[in-house]
Protein: Putative lyase
Amino acid sequence: MFQISHIHHVAIICSNYMVSKHFYNQILGLPIIKETYRAERQSYKLDLKVSEHEQIELFSFPSPPERPSRPEAQGLRHLAFAVTNLDQCVTHLQTHNIPVENIRTDELTGKRFTFFADPDNLPLELYEQ
Structure:
């Protein structure tokens, strides 16, 4: 039987590796598992720990094409992070001059959430647990 136990990783291709590395590691606080430079591809691969089982793989490539549009482009719509204190996270992002949308409440679950963007305008969500 085909059975998935959890998401292992989400891969993100960034336009400016150092800016995105700082954002995900220093601002969002995701610990670095491993950083690899692949000379033959002129590409970095940075593995970041989200939880015991989940990771973000941050890639850099020379001249990657831009995302077609946001947020309704076909494909991945956004990446959501579970948090325990949404207000504290919003304040932290705002102290780093990261614009955050107004907090909303999910009409189906009653949980609070908001959106912000990474340095490449990838839509990110904070979902309060």
In short: The helical segments are 17-27, 86-95. The chain has two domains: 6-63, 76-129. The first strand starts at residue 9 and ends at 14.
